[in-house]
Design goal:
With about 150 residues, the chain is α+β, with helices and mostly antiparallel strands. It has five helices and six strands; from the N terminus they run H-H-E-H-H-E-E-E-E-E-H.
Amino acid sequence: MNRQDMETLLEEKGIRLTSNRILILKALSDAKNPISLADLESRLGYTMDKASIFRVLELFAQKEVVHVIDDGSRSQKYEICHGHGHHSIADQHVHFYCEICKETFCIESMKVPMVQLPEGFESQSVNYVVKGICPRCGKKMSNPLL
C-alpha cells in the first residue's frame, strides 16, 4: 500500500491524517501477518510510545480500518481490513496460530463459516483461529538440522 492509498483510506474512514497514523498504517501494511502491539512498537523503532500506538490502533478498529484478532496468545493482533466500505463477518478469514513460533497467519482462502444462531441473537464479529504447528516449524521438528 503506497502513501496515497493510505491517505485515501484514512480520509474515506473520516480519520484525520497525522504522521503517527500514517506510520502505523504503513507498518501494518508491510507486515506479512497480523501483528501485535509489542511487535508494532518494535517495528516502529520505538519512535512512538506504546500508549500512542494503542490509541491509534483503537481508533483504526473503531473506524473499521483494522480487524482485531484474539488468537489465544494473550496479545491481540491487528491486520488491515481489505473489505471495502463497512467490514463484516463475510470479509473475515480463518487465522492459524503456531504454538511453536507463536506467529499468527492469515488463511485468506478460507472464509469464516457462518453460524446459525438461535432467534434473537445477532453476531457482531467472529474469531476463528486454528492452533497447531506451521509448515516452517513442522520442517524444523522433522529435520532438526534446518
